[in-house]
């Protein structure tokens, strides 16, 4: 499982990706974010599920190690914004 520390940074910067526009409450923050946590976690969209997305879209093009490394880099960039 991806080592997410539940900082919520990804869910507060949806305006950086066209794919998340439907979840953006208007200021880049997801309308389902409560504090730093997802209020619909168990039923969150596929695009919010790092491990499920790997299996479906990325497992044929890169190793899980590489995928996690790239995701961690994105997390770090968002945390430092
Ligand atoms: S930015 Fe990364 S560590 Fe923070 S909540 Fe999102 S996935 Fe987890
Ligand atoms: S649905 Fe949940 S996991 Fe997805 S962006 Fe919103 S708060 Fe984050």
Summarize the amount of helix as a percent range.
Answer: 25-40%
Note the gap between the termini: 25 Å
Mean model confidence by pLDDT? 97
Residue runs with pLDDT of under 50 for 5 or more positions? none
Oligomer: single chain
Biggest sheet strand order reads 1-2
Tally of discrete structural domains: 1
Class computed from helices, strands and strand pairing: mainly alpha
Largest sheet: 2 strands, antiparallel
Apparent shape: globular
| Ligands, ions, cofactors | iron/sulfur cluster
Number of strands: 2
Q: What's the helix-strand series?
A: EEHH
Radius of gyration: 13 Å
Write the layout of secondary structure elements.
Blueprint: E1 33-34, E2 37-38, H1 50-58, H2 64-79
Antiparallel strand pairs: 1-2
The structure holds iron/sulfur cluster (2 copies).
Brief summary:
The protein is mostly helical and 81 residues long. The chain has helices spanning 50-58, 64-79; strands at residues 33-34, 37-38. The site of one iron/sulfur cluster (SF4) has 9 residues, from helix 2.
């Amino acid at each position: 499982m991806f080592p997410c520390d539940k900082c919520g940074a990804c869910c507060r910067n949806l305006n950086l990706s066209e794919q998340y526009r439907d979840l953006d409450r208007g200021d880049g923050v997801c309308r389902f974010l409560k504090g730093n946590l997802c209020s619909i976690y168990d039923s969150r969209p596929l695009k919010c599920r790092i491990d499920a997305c790997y299996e479906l879209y990325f497992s044929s093009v890169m190793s899980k190690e590489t995928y996690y490394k790239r995701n961690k880099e994105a997390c770090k960039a968002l945390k430092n914004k």
